[in-house]
Amino acid sequence: MLAAWFPGAPLPLNISVQLEVDGQPCDPPFDSTINRSGFIIKRIYSMTELAGCHLTNFRRGAGDAALTLVITRGGQRSALRGGQEAGQGDVEAAPQIPATPRLAEPREPGRTAGAQQQGAGIHRAQGGVLPAAPAAEQATRADVPGPTAGRARREGETPGARRQQAAPAAMPWAAAPAAVEAEGVAPAMLAGLAQLEVPVPAAPLAAGGAAALNAAAAALQEAALLAYEEVLRAAEALGLPPERLDTVCGGVQAATEEAGGCRRFLGMEYPRLRRACAAGAMDVVRAWMERVAGSGGG
């Protein structure tokens, strides 16, 4: 879907997001971003009122880069199945909203099975750029407002209808832990963060020449960017204030500035964050953030 809506668009991509809850628009559209890992980030984490809801569909919205997330409250079932309205047949349960809505698969081969299952059947991004949709696929879609000529949405299609053999991972909507920790939502949400395994690129061999050195440097930079985005997701999900979030970002940048330090961060520090998030250990994640923020001079 995403490739047909925004063909050739680079990632990260700034977008406008409209939430539609139980068939009704929910608040004005807000600005967000689809990061290099294919996640919608920014403003998603603070919506505690949507904990336990279900994401049933994506739709292309009006505008140059706009999406609508179709959501149902917990306990309800998807109103759509394979283009048929509810009531014309059994309707499968809607997948629960993941920790962060994901619109594309990560590019790295080391991603976890849970991360694979959160995709919405959208073409994989290659090299940080969304590929063009196949011509046959574009031909099946009607026109919608926006920068693309082909239809940007598949009315009535749910992630579960396209991939019934691999159900998406069920996770609560990401929310600020201060508001929902007592209900146990925040630890479960943290368990869905930092899922993307970022392998440490091998050090270049001197015998490979300049081309090998440049390729190794580019691979290391890409790995650092992926890890940075995962750290940012976890930090925002913790509800860190903007000034503290900024120091965490500075700490990650400082740790990954030099090649040797970057490999140490990817091979030692980042896996510690992933393990803490997987365990839902909020105190450990906070301590990790404070340590990284301190290393950046914040």
Mean pLDDT figure: 63
Measured by DSSP, the beta-strand proportion falls in 5-15%
| Count of DSSP strands | 7
Rg, alpha carbons: 20 Å
How does the helix and strand content classify structurally? alpha+beta
Shape: globular
Total helices: the number is 10
Low-confidence stretches: 75-100, 102-185
Distance between the termini: 41 Å
Biggest beta sheet summary: 5 strands, mixed
The strand order across the widest sheet is 3-2-1-5-4
- Helical percent range? 25-40%
Our count of domains comes out at 2
Helix-strand pattern: HEEEEEEEHHHHHHHHH
Structural description of this entry:
Residues 79-170 are annotated as: Disordered. Residues 111-142, 159-170 have a biased composition (Low complexity). With 298 residues, the chain is an alpha+beta fold. It folds into two domains: 2-162, no CATH class; 177-295, no CATH class. The protein is built from ten helices and seven strands. It has helices at residues 2-5, 113-117, 135-138, 159-162, 177-180, 185-191, 209-237, 242-255, 259-278, 282-295, and strands at 13-21, 24-34, 40-41, 54-60, 66-72, 80-81, 84-85. The strands form two sheets. Strands 3-2-1-5-4 form a five-stranded mixed sheet, with no helix packed on it. A hairpin with a 2-residue loop joins strand 6 (80-81) and strand 7 (84-85). Helix 7 (209-237) runs antiparallel to helix 8, helix 7 runs parallel beside helix 9 (259-278) and helix 9 runs antiparallel to helix 10. Mean pLDDT is 63; it is low at 75-100 and 102-185.
